[in-house]
Amino acid sequence: MVALIGLVAGVVLGLVFQPTVPLWLQPYLPIAIVAALDAMFGGVRARLEGVFDEKTFVVSFVGNTILAALIVFLGDQLGVGSQLSTGVVVVLGVRIFSNAAAIRRKLFGA
Amino acid sequence: MSDAAKPPGTTRTTGGEDGAAGTPERPRRPLAPLTDMLRPRLTRGQLAGALLSLVLGFAVVAQVQANNHDTKFATARQDELVGILSDLTQRSERLRGDLRDLENTKAGLERDARGQTALEEARRRADDYGLLAGTVPAQGPGVEITVTDPRRAVRAANLLDALEELRDAGAEVVQVGDVRTGVDTYFVDGPEGVLADGRFLPPPYRILAIGDPHTMATALGIPGGVVRTLRGLGAEVTVTPRARMTVSAVRSG
Predict the structure, then answer these.
(1) Treating both helix axes as pointing N-terminal to C-terminal, what angle do B44-69 and A2-17 enclose, rounded to 10 degrees?
(2) What is the spatial distance between Cα B118 and Cα B112, in angstroms, rounded to a whole number?
(3) CA distance B174 to B138
């Protein structure tokens, strides 16, 4: 509940302040967001399965976003940035879908 | 995950069998875990989750808005951007040159009391348009193309292809045989051979084109291009760049 309020507050803050993404962050923010979404879904799933642990959640959230951005950064340095970000997005997308499927089974039993 | 797939009905039946024991299992609503999860609790971990969610929401909005601003250049890679930039630079240089020319003309016209500059300008334009329309002879660098056609296999379409290719490559003045080409030049297959603008063209065909010799020679010689097609028809083609040549044929207008 508190997390949901936080999410809404974040969106509202973003709409109010109209932030501009700094140039050095621009290639990495989308990937970091997808990684954060993955961590989010993972957290909800763990909560529903009763194995939610706050420390794990925070560490995986922060760690995954930074790792995803780092992978893309490394890819950019190696000259395969766009391909590598596609790969990261695919992997994270698969994880998001499997988490969403688990959540759905927990909630609706189907 | 697999026990989650168990339908809620299963628990209810077992509950019904054990119902006699006096501890009736509370019938679980399907969305009970959700409402349980949404119950507000204030612990440190919850606050941390809220903070991270806040950051996520903020970042999503920032990214969406950044994407709305410039979708074209934000996703472009460095080499694409360099290409776009150099295109723009070239174009602006060309436009600046045009601007300088036009300003010179304007200044000349303003200074000019007796109409000398205006007259020169008009003559220059008459020359330009005369060259384009084919009503005046022309001189300059270009290529000379000779097509011998021993098998009589070259059709009007092939000559039209050659002419179009030359025009694409920047030929300003073109003469085919002794016909000066213009905007309405046509080629027809006649009973004896190819007719250009109604005049019979006897082979070998000789084409003179004024323009950048290198560009035109390259355009003619590309794989699958005009020269290859003509050679495929059994014709002998020679392309000779010339530093200076004269196109003397004119159109009567």
Answers:
(1) 30
(2) 8
(3) 10
Tokens of A54: 């706050």
Q: Which residues of A touch B8 (CB under 8 A)?
A: 109
At residue B203, does pLDDT exceed 50?
Answer: yes
For residues A65 and B55, the answer to whether their CB atoms sit within 8 Å is no
Q: What is the pLDDT along chain A (110 residues), one digit of tens a residue?
A: 677 778 888 888 877 877 777 777 777 888 888 898 898 888 888 888 887 788 888 888 899 889 988 888 888 888 887 888 888 889 999 999 999 998 888 888 76
CB atoms within 10 A of CB B23: 9
| A contacts of B6 (beta carbons < 8 Å) | 109
Angle between helices A54-78 and A29-48 (to 10 degrees): 150
Helix axes A54-78, B44-69, angle to 10 degrees: 30
Sheet order of strands, B138-148 included: B179-180, B173-176, B205-210, B138-148, B236-247
State whether residue A63 sits within 8 Å of chain B by CB: no
The whole-model pTM stands at 0.44
B54 touches chain A (CB under 8 A): yes
